[in-house]
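Can you give me the bound-state structure? Components:
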Amino acid sequence: MALPEQDVREIGALQGHRVEVETWGRIFWRRFRRNRQALAGCAVLLFLIAISVGAPWIAPHDRDYADLTKIELPPSREHPLGTDQIGRDNLTRLLYAGRISLLVGVVAVAVSISIGTLLGAVAGYVGGWVDNIIMRVADIILSFPLLVLLIVLASIIPPAIPSHYATMAVIGFVSWPGVARLVRGEFLSLREREFVEAGRAMGAGTNRMIFRHMLPNSVAPLIVSATLGVAGAILTESALSFLGLGVQPPLPSWGNMLTDALTWRVLAMKPWLWVPPGIMIFVAVMAINMVGDGLRDALDPRLKND
Amino acid sequence: MAEQVSSPAAAETAASLVGESYDPEEILVNVVDLKKYFPITGGVLSRVIGHVKAVDGVSFFVRRGETLGLVGESGCGKTTTGRVILRLLEPTAGRVEFEGRNIFELSREQLRRMRREMQIIFQDPYASLNPRMTVGDIIGEPLEIHGIARGAERDRRVRELLEVVGLSSHHMRRYPHEFSGGQRQRIGIARALALNPKLIVCDEPVSALDVSIQSQVLNLLEELQDEFGLTYLFIAHDLSVVKHISDRIGVMYLGKMVELADEDELFRSPQHPYTEALLSAIPIPDPAVQRERERIVLTGDVPSPANPPKGCRFHTRCPLAEPICREVEPEFKDLGGGHWVACHMAPRQVTGITAG
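Here's the bound-state model for the whole set.
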């Protein structure tokens, strides 16, 4: 006779056995696992990370070695993706570019999530004029066309700072308002929940209220927004680098590899110079978005845990 | 605020109900002319254009060890009263004395310490427990906040508390979503008990529960009261629930206390027509009696608390209303024996319910 899982656990507990507790993590994983798209996205993403991190070991050539006798060669055995305008191996540069592009994406999001969460949490919890000031600043940043703001910021950063660090900082800085709005919205709704009131009735201080009660209940949308943000940041980095303001050569990124291919002659006749980085951006962004969607579905508290 | 109390009768209710015949030691909470107005804002500049008078001059007291029931329709201000007494909401006016100290004058730190003495049990057992914390963390949190117990000692206390409320100690490591509504409410009760409070405000603690579970939770609350000498302010809209648990009952209507009396006195001889109407709405579990009895059905809706009627607030729906009711606000007066009522027609002969 089969008993429902709940009963089995209940009976086990009554008899004093150690009963397995289903934690949030486990519930999440059970739901996430069923989403094939998200799993595929995860696999692709892990693969991209692996080949980028492993670039120094798997790349067939030296990243910056230019052989001027082998300019813009089409794909061959020696150079599977051909060579670029100054005779560097394209595959090698593509692998190294992944390191920069993925890193910029992750770090930029880490920056924007940190700033945005902190400011959004304070705005939502404290309210009043503090909220007003923070959100008006956020509105101002949001009201500028993103690219214009990025271009201005990118051009005033001193050249002494390595270009990829500058790019991370700039992208992170312009994208925190979205996160702040999200967190503030969550906090405003959480503030009315009874367990938050219970916390106040116990005499919990501001720190405890924010970090124990409210933030843990806002992580689901934050994780989703962070994941999707990485995809956005990779695209933004590409756009910036494409405009010549992001990651500077000789450091390769998928974006500046595209810039280098930006002539009519190359576009028409040398597709191996621009198709691979374009595909990498496309695949990476797609994979991350699929993971993000999967996370959103798995973390949605409105779905009954089944 | 916008409107001042004008009639001499109303001004008199501003005084504390605790007369000379009461021993101050006996009174745990004394609420005096409590008011809570919520601003209504409008227009582009969000100017304040009015106030919702959720609680508008309520006075009562709670004796040590008793259960004071607070009933009324939704929107009458009973929940707000409970929240303001715990200072979870800031009052507009009035005093709440807890063991003689006005809690509205406490500093932030003093208030934090005072929170050990008064706790709350919430209506919705699904919303009142943090879904991301284990039961052990939820019940142990007040102990940590007030530096009473940590680590193993905290866990020991939590286990004790779980057993006190009829759960078992192995539930500690589980999350709220793994429990039923009744069990969750027990967790909420354990959390409220953790600090050994003197007063617990029970804000409709059984309204969200299945009827079969309601009595279990009510009995638990009664047992705990005996065991720990607790004082309850029990807020509910269900008179039969309140009758079951209360020593005295206060009836609220539109931000005012309209009647306050011992439980049996109130049921035997309700003096306010609103109380009478409420009592007549309690179903009697005997079809013969139920069919024969006369029900008082009120007409119309509760007026808006933003713009309450002049005079007696109940006159728009009152079957007994006289011209004076439209003009003069009735005084909240003691008819003797601690039976207070705010009605011009009182005292009068009324037959209430003795059954049930």
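A couple of observations. Residues 1-8 of chain A have pLDDT under 50 and may be disordered. Chain A touches chain B through 25 residues (CB under 8 Å).
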